[in-house]
Design brief:
Blueprint: H1 5-10, E1 12-20, H2 31-44, E2 47-56, H3 67-79, E3 84-87, H4 93-103, E4 107-109, H5 110-121, H6 125-139, H7 148-151, H8 164-168, H9 171-202, E5 206-211, H10 217-225, E6 242-249, E7 252-258, H11 268-273, H12 275-283, E8 286-292, H13 298-312, E9 319-324, E10 340-342, H14 351-363, E11 367-373, H15 378-387, E12 389-396, E13 399-406, H16 408-414, E14 418-421
Parallel strand pairs: 1-2, 1-3, 3-4, 5-7, 5-8, 8-9, 9-10
Antiparallel strand pairs: 6-7, 11-13, 11-14, 12-13
This protein binds guanosine-5'-triphosphate and magnesium ion.
Guanosine-5'-triphosphate (GTP) binds at residues 211, 213-219, 231-233, 235-238, 261, 324-325, 327-328, 344-346.
């Protein structure tokens, strides 16, 4: 399954989208989503030979885009010597079969292409398990109607992952495999859970970087922490979470995490499979929503990310909107507001403002105080050292005077001993 890049690089695909009145925004195709499909194809290593956008009231029950249009696409495939057709819409197994018969080449849909990219790019064991799980979940309902694309062997877009022999075995076998993958993932999650608990115990706030794919999330993590992770101008460059410690100010350290990018029409199996990676969001104290200011579809993409944040983050988590790539747009193209930061991770502009905004946002829930504890509470000093950020400890005639930054829980416990709010 490895080493398919050469073959992928040779794939020549016609991209087809159907814009139907009865579709929701999630299902429909537009010029913009076809452009994005083209970028996804490029990430997968393929080459787009032609794009076709069809407007219809409803999809055709047999050929999806209508017989006439389907024949047109067939001619395009032949004229451009294309090796596959990729649809921007999600297709039923029946449609895939019918279309493959008409075109004479394999047909993939957007979800399958995204899964393929994930299969190519997932590096860690966890990432690989998640992708494999998503692939099986995608395949299971499609087993009966599988066409050429799934029975081909030898690699290429859409063929990485479960191979033919596995696919031909019965559903029960695949269900068992899904169960096995789920329990393996559960184990990986437990390890992550332990790491997270340790962080919470250390009382280091977690700041998660989220945003549309290619917005500049990894560039930001690199800029702030020197993490040195790859940041390339292609979709889904990052698939694994990387976390680094960041000193925001003299009395605030945070854990900063890069996450997988979001995209419109993300197959829901992938969201589910990536829940462990995206669990970072659930435990984050603050989200940095990185936005590509120069993106022509900025508003739509902000909405996609907002909606996923709504599903994945705990309610009420503060969000800073980071309008990145400010070097590419003029000042008036970026809104002004309390939770808005204008910045460029590429040039470094606006990083000071961002750090201040992070401190402010977290400061609301953290308390820099001096507490004076009676000597009978000596054990608490130990707790503070492990669970808070201790700045100074003084053993005085009045008691143990500790200057520290407390999280809301410790602050609540020690409120009566606070002698100074700093
Ligand atoms: N001009 C400019 N380019 C930037 C800036 N920040 C990031 N980029 C470029 O945008 C592209 C994407 O950056 P990444 O950091 O990989 O984006 P990402 O959000 O991590 O992308 P995925 O991991 O693919 O979701 C790269 O080519 C970066 O060099 C910026 O402030 N200005
Ligand atoms: Mg990235």
């Amino acid at each position: 399954m490895e080493g398919n890049f050469d073959k992928v690089a040779q794939e020549r695909a016609v991209l087809v989208g159907l814009n139907a009145d009865c579709f929701t925004a999630q299902q429909t195709a537009t010029e913009q989503t076809l452009e994005e499909l083209d970028a996804l194809l490029e990430t997968a290593g393929g080459f787009c030979t032609a794009k076709v956008l069809q407007n219809r009231h409803t999809p055709d029950s047999h050929s999806f885009i209508g017989e006439g249009k389907a024949l047109e696409v067939k001619m395009l495939v032949e004229a451009t010597e294309s090796t596959m057709v990729i649809f921007d819409n999600e297709l039923s197994p029946g449609h895939i079969r019918a279309l493959e018969e008409i075109f004479g080449v394999p047909v993939l849909d957007r979800s399958a292409l995204i899964l393929d990219i994930f299969a190519q790019r997932a590096k860690t064991r966890e990432g690989r398990l998640q992708v494999e799980l998503a692939q099986y979940q995608y395949l299971l309902p499609r087993l009966s109607g599988m066409g050429k694309s799934l029975s081909r062997q030898g690699g290429g877009i859409g063929t990485r992952g479960p191979g033919e022999t596995k696919l031909e075995s019965d559903r029960r076998h695949i269900r068992e495999r899904i169960h096995r993958l789920q329990s393996e993932l559960e184990q990986v999650r437990q390890v992550r859970g332990v790491q997270r608990e340790r962080r919470i115990k250390n009382s280091v706030p977690v700041v998660a970087i989220v945003g549309y794919t290619n917005a500049g999330k990894s560039t930001l993590l690199n800029r702030l922490t020197g993490a040195g992770i790859p940041a390339n101008n292609r979709l889904f460059d990052t698939l694994d979470t990387t976390s680094r410690q960041l000193r925001v100010s003299d009395n605030l350290d945070v854990i900063l995490s890069d996450t997988v990018g979001f995209i419109a029409k993300l197959p829901h199996h992938l969201v589910n499979a990536f829940r462990a990676t995206l669990e970072e969001l659930e435990y984050a104290d603050l989200l940095l929503h990185v936005i590509d200011s120069a993106d022509p579809d900025r508003q739509e993409h902000i909405a996609v990310v907002d909606s996923l944040i709504g599903k994945l983050a705990k309610p009420g988590t503060p969000v800073l909107r980071c309008f990145n790539k400010a070097d590419l747009v003029s000042r008036e193209d970026i809104p002004v507001g309390e939770d808005v930061v204008r910045m460029s991770a590429g040039t470094g502009e606006g990083m000071e403002d961002l750090l201040k905004a992070i401190e402010n946002a977290l400061g609301h829930s953290r308390h820099h105080v001096v507490v004076t504890l009676p000597y009978s509470m000596g054990g608490m000093v130990e707790t503070l050292h492990t669970s808070a950020q201790v700045i100074n400890v003084d053993y005085t005639g009045d008691g143990i005077v500790v200057e520290a930054v407390l999280d809301p829980i410790l602050y609540g416990k020690l409120k009566e001993y606070v002698t100074k709010e700093c």
